[in-house]
Design goal:
Elements lengths: L18 H4 L11 E5 L4 H12 L3 E6 L8 H5 L7 E4 L5 H11 L3 E4 L13 H22 L4 E7 L22 H20 L3 E6 L2 E2 L8 H13 L6 E3 L5 E2 L2 E2 H12 L6 E4 L5 E2 H11 L4 E4 L6 E4 L5 E5 L17 H7 L7 H21 L1
Parallel strand pairs: 1-2, 1-4, 2-3, 4-5, 5-6, 6-11, 7-10, 8-15
Antiparallel strand pairs: 9-12, 13-14, 14-15
Helix pairs in contact: 2-8, 4-5, 5-6, 7-9, 7-11, 9-11
Bound molecules: NADP nicotinamide-adenine-dinucleotide phosphate and ligand F7E.
């Protein structure tokens, strides 16, 4: 076989190559690609780890030293024993430096963050330190110790903030509306800057909201699916929500981690929007979840007095609570994923109704398991 050979798009399918070519990094070493995922205990980290393991990667993951019981998502996917875990904290430069210098992985996915926008006003310094300076610590370490490592930065639609165009694409100017978004914008610009200045293969995925049964319970979709699932099982509680007019472009997380991986397989690093191209209000997401649970809702009132009742029982299941309003809101997000489709062949396929159904069913089933336990 001639050398150099072409690496298949689906990773290093070593079993299809002659044995002498499998010995890539020294005698007896298989040519599995290596990846490090910061934030491997989070929603995206867990799905990305699963995807990369399926592709034959050796997957390293960063976990915070004081958060060892947060391996729940990896356990739910049945992969907790297959990810090589390392103590890793984006706040600690020495720690970041030592881990990355020693591993020198092929691909680094920077998914770790204080990711809850609502908390970022009350913990602005911490949010900026993790989300902005944390990315700087990783980029500078890679530049010094492993410049050939391909780098993915978890950028976000929140950077568009009070939007300057509809829909939002890679060309839309940023206008961040929270400490979270401002920190992510800094990390984004720094990633572009390291790519331009030092030739690093560093890409940003500007991802619109993506959800799943592994989503944190504080985010609105999962708050709705988990609370309504308990109500459908007989709970008398009420789902208390903030701004129900806010609109988001909600997709399904496992599809989005595939897009991250595709970005790092390109010859040239670049930035891409991943989105569905459709937008839905929080109120309509409530109705989708209720529908999936077989619950018809009657909406009445407006503003602070708006409620949704279970049409069958009259029980109030949703109400407005100003405690969940934000100091500044991002009212309308809708992404234009045309570039990702053309360049990466990536497309979201799960619409918001299907997404709500997946989440509602998973929460309904796990509620039953908890009641049975
Ligand atoms: P997530 O579930 O909140 O996960 C965040 C991860 O970051 C967790 O593993 C967390 O660890 C870790 N982390 C927090 N602080 C850290 C620190 N100081 N050092 C190291 N790790 C730390 O978030 P996600 O939804 O998977 O999102 C992944 C990334 O994409 C985030 O950067 C987020 O900002 C960004 N993003 C998300 C969306 C979305 O819709 N999901 C959209 C655009 C961008 P613990 O388990 O210890 O808390
Ligand atoms: O809020 C409104 C809230 O917290 C969505 C993160 O992954 O996606 C996520 O950020 C909307 C907002 O997500 C409640 O005001 C109403 O307008 O689910 P969320 P988010 O802020 O969009 C982006 C792309 C990221 O990058 C982030 O990391 O829903 N809303 N009532 C509520 N939100 C919450 N959390 N709770 C409520 O009761």
């Amino acid at each position: 076989m001639p050398f150099p050979y072409t690496v298949p798009q689906d990773g290093y399918a070593t079993e299809r190559l002659p044995f002498h070519i499998q010995l890539g990094r020294g005698i007896g070493t298989k040519m599995n690609k290596t990846a490090f995922i910061s934030g491997v205990t989070g929603q995206d980290g867990a799905y990305l780890a699963q995807l990369l393991l399926e592709k034959g990667y050796v997957v390293h993951g960063g976990v915070r030293a004081n958060a060892q019981d947060s391996l729940d998502r990896l356990s739910r996917l049945g992969i907790q024993d297959r990810v090589k875990l390392h103590n890793f904290d984006l706040l600690d430069m020495n720690n970041v430096f030592r881990v990355l210098r020693d591993l020198r992985v092929d691909e680094f996915y920077n998914l770790a963050a204080q990711s809850f926008v609502g908390a970022s006003w009350d913990s602005a310094m911490n949010t900026l330190d993790i989300n902005a300076m944390g990315a700087a610590r990783v980029l500078d370490t890679l530049r010094t110790t492993s410049p050939e490592t391909r780098f993915y930065q978890a950028s976000t639609s929140e950077m568009f903030g009070a939007v300057r165009a509809v829909p939002q694409s890679e060309l839309t100017p940023f206008n961040p509306r929270s400490p979270y978004a401002a920190g992510k914008a800094m990390a984004h610009y720094l990633t572009v800057n390291y790519r331009d200045s030092f030739g690093m293969h560093a890409s940003c995925g500007i991802l619109f909201n993506h959800e799943s049964p592994l989503r944190g319970l504080q985010f609105v979709t999962r708050k709705i699916s988990s609370t309504l699932a308990r109500i459908a099982r007989g709970s008398a509680e009420v789902c208390r929500l903030g701004n129900m007019d806010a609109r988001r472009d909600w997709g399904y997380a496992p599809e989005y981690v595939e897009g991250m991986w595709r970005m790092l397989q390109q010859d040239r690093a670049d930035d891409y929007v991943l989105a569905t191209g459709a937008t839905t209000t929080v109120r309509d997401f409530v109705s989708c979840v209720a529908g999936a649970l077989g619950m018809r809702l009657d909406w009445e009132g407006e503003g602070l007095t708006e409620v949704a009742r279970n049409a069958a029982t009259g029980q109030v299941v949703v109400c407005v609570d100003p405690a969940f309003f934000r100091p500044a809101e991002v009212d309308l997000l809708i992404g234009d994923p045309a570039k990702a489709k053309a360049a990466l062949g990536w497309q979201a396929t799960t619409d918001v109704t299907a997404l709500a159904t997946i989440m509602a069913r998973a929460d309904y089933d796990s509620t039953a398991n908890r009641l049975a336990a």
